[in-house]
Amino acid sequence: MRIVDLGCGAGRDLVSWGVTPADQVTGLDIDDSSLAIAKSRFPDRTFLRGAGECLPLESESFDRVISAIAIPYMNIQKTLSEIYRVLVPGGSVSLSLHPPSFTIAELLHKAIPNPAPTVFRLYVLANGLWFHGTGRTVGFLRGRTESFQTERGMKIAMNRAGFVDLSFRRAAGPAGGTFAVEARKSKVIDPSTAVRVP
Predict the structure, then answer these.
(1) What does the pLDDT look like over 90-144, one tens digit per residue?
(2) For residue 58, what pLDDT is reported?
(3) In what order do the strands lie in the sheet with 62-68?
(4) 192, exposed or middle or buried, with CB in 10 Å at 0-12, 13-18, 19+?
C-alpha cells in the first residue's frame, strides 16, 4: 500500500496506524531539520518537504493518507482538497485532531496572563468555533493557522471535499484526549460523467 504520513515530523512508528513493513511510506513535513532526523531514523521511507495545502505529489497516486495532530495547524479545507486529489478512487484517510478541550486547556494553562499568547489562543478558539459552524478555517498573522475541530465541522469539511463513509472515534490523551476521523475517497464509475458512488 502507498501511504502518505502528512506532518510526519521526525518520523514515527506507524504500527498503531496499521502500517506494515511492506507498505511504501512517504512522509511530508515543512520542517527541514525534522525531515533530516526522519530520514536517519527510517531510511527505507521517502521524505519530502511540503505543506498540506499544496502537496508535492501526483494526483491519484496514494492509497491512504494518515496524519497525527497536524491538520489542526493547516488550512483544513485546502488540505482536505489536496488529500482527496492525491488519493486513488476508494483510497482512505485517517486523521487525529484537536477537540475543543485542548484549546481551552492551552488558553487557561499556557497563555493567560501573557498578552500575545492569550490573543493567539483566543484566535484559535474563535477559529475552532468558526470551523464548527462552517467547516472552514481562517488564517492568522503571516499565514499561521490553527483551530480545534469538532465532529460537526469535520463532517461539513469532509463532505464538501468529497469524502464518504466518515467514522469518528475518541481516545484518551493530554488535555482531555483527541479524536480521530476516518473516511475514504468516493469511487468513480465512469470518468466521462464523473459520477461518484460510495
Answers:
(1) 999 999 998 888 888 888 888 888 898 899 999 999 999 999 999 999 999 877 8
(2) 98
(3) 46-49, 24-29, 2-6, 62-68, 87-97, 178-185, 163-171
(4) exposed
Structural domains of the chain, ranges and CATH numbers in brackets: 2-197 (3.40.50.150)
Question: What is the spatial distance between Cα 62 and Cα 160, in angstroms, rounded to a whole number?
Answer: 20
Q: Whole-angstrom Cα distance, residue 21 to residue 115?
A: 47
Task: Let me know the angle formed at the C-alpha of 96 by 47 and 8, rounded to the nearest 5 degrees.
Answer: 15
Q: Maximum Cα–Cα distance for the chain, whole Å? A: 58
Place of cell 502518505: 4
Q: Measured between alpha carbons, how far is 143 from 101 in angstroms, rounded to an integer?
A: 24
Q: What is the rounded distance in angstroms from the CA atom of residue 195 to the CA atom of residue 53?
A: 26
Retrieve residue 24's grid coordinates: 511504501
CA distance 117 to 106: 9
CA distance 172 to 190: 43
> Which H or E run includes 43?
none
